């Protein structure tokens, strides 16, 4: 199988590419290596897959010097002509689109980057799939789409029409765009709503990374909503396993789907939405305690109100993932945090 994975200098895309490479698939990675956070970390991930910083040139594919079945290209998703040319030249069997402008808070400051990457860029991916008979498109959505929904656990069968951040709105838009292409052009598409992913090589703008860095350096940590929050933290290896199982099995039409009582997670078109989460919410203060235990150091806490655009709790209903793929993420937060801290200390030589 020949697969395009976008976002391979990013956290999830990097781990997914490594799994597919080691499995023996022909993997093509894509990333624009933007400066949303420290690019050195992105180059560090790429180096792990045999892609050297000095070899990277925009819109030029390069061969990994470690894996014969891996190539990489630096490219913006919104670069329509070059994206479509890449699809035409490489003829991918499947595509997993993980590249996107991430972050809730950043969308308050730089909204246009979300439209460029997450809307315009995603349209280019859809067009590439349409014009080149890609057999399956899987793509990253987000638990953020649940917005003002307070029904727990969050179910893909619930209506999610009330996002509270532009980031969430773009992810919901991706699901709607994908459904349109599935129905019009019979392209199997599967959206994956990730729940607070963490682990080695994680993003520096995420809570675990920020908390660990500050605690190790003896700096205070900001605790939003005065600690009264909980998250369905999901370890990176569990996320990757879910992505692979789903991507390997193209979405199918739901023959029992009815427009009179529409199921939001499926369609008469080859379209499907899944949650990938640990389905076991952890209180923020317990999460911080687990970090303190792994580092063996107490944190100085600054208690703050809720950040605008954020939600107090997330909890994934993963029953569809369990029923369709016999899979349920199960890495404990204590175990996952321990692995992250081990990586962090080694990588940053603390």
Give a concise summary.
The protein is α/β, with parallel strands linked by helices. It has eleven helices and 14 strands. The strands form four sheets. The protein has an eight-stranded mixed β-sheet with strand order 3-4-2-1-5-6-7-12, sandwiched between helices.
Summarize model confidence as the mean pLDDT: 96
- The span between the termini is 41 Å
Low-confidence sequence ranges: none
Order of helices and strands: EHEHEEHEHHEHEEHEEEHEEHEHH
Oligomeric status: single chain
Helix content: 25-40%
Number of helix segments?
A: 11
Strand order in space, largest sheet: 3-4-2-1-5-6-7-12
The biggest beta sheet reads: 8 strands, mixed
Helix/strand/pairing category: alpha/beta
Please explain how this structure is put together.
Helix content is 39%, strand content 16%. By secondary structure, it is α/β, with parallel strands linked by helices. The protein has an eight-stranded mixed β-sheet with strand order 3-4-2-1-5-6-7-12, sandwiched between helices. Strands 8-11 form a two-stranded parallel ribbon. Helix 1 links the parallel strand 1 (2-6) and strand 2 (26-31). The longest helix is centred in the middle third of the chain and has 21 residues, at 111-131.
């Amino acid at each position: 199988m020949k697969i395009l994975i976008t976002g391979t200098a990013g956290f999830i895309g990097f781990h997914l590419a490594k799994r597919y490479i080691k499995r023996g698939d022909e993997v093509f990675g894509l990333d624009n290596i933007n400066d949303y956070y420290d690019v050195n970390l992105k180059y560090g991930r790429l180096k792990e897959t045999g892609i050297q910083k000095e070899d990277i040139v925009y819109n030029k594919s390069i061969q990994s010097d470690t894996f014969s079945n891996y190539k990489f290209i630096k490219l913006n998703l919104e670069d329509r002509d070059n994206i479509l040319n890449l699809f035409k030249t490489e003829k991918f069997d499947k595509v997993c689109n993980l590249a996107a402008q991430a972050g809730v808070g950043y969308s308050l400051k730089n909204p246009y980057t979300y439209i460029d990457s997450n809307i315009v860029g995603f349209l280019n991916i859809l067009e590439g799939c349409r014009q080149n008979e890609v057999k399956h498109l899987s793509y990253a959505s987000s638990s953020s789409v649940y917005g003002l929904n307070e029904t727990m656990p969050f179910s893909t069968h619930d209506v999610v029409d009330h996002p509270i951040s532009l980031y969430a709105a773009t992810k919901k838009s991706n699901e709607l765009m994908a459904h349109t292409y599935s129905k019009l052009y019979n392209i199997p598409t599967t959206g994956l709503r990730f729940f607070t992913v963490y682990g080695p090589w994680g993003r520096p703008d995420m809570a675990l990374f920020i908390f660990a860095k500050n605690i190790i350096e003896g700096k205070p940590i900001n605790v939003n909503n005065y600690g009264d929050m909980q998250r369905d933290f999901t370890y990176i290896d569990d996320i990757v396993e879910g992505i692979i199982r789903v991507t390997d099995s193209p979405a199918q039409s739901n023959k029992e789907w009815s427009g009179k009582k529409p199921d939001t997670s499926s369609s008469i078109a080859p379209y499907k939405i899944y949650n990938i989460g640990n389905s076991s919410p952890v209180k923020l203060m317990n999460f911080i305690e687990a970090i303190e235990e792994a580092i063996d150091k107490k944190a100085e806490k600054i208690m703050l109100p809720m950040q605008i655009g954020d939600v107090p709790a997330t909890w994934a209903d993963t029953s569809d993932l369990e029923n369709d793929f016999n899979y349920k993420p199960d890495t404990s937060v204590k175990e996952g945090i321990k692995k992250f801290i081990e990586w962090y200390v080694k990588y940053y030589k603390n």
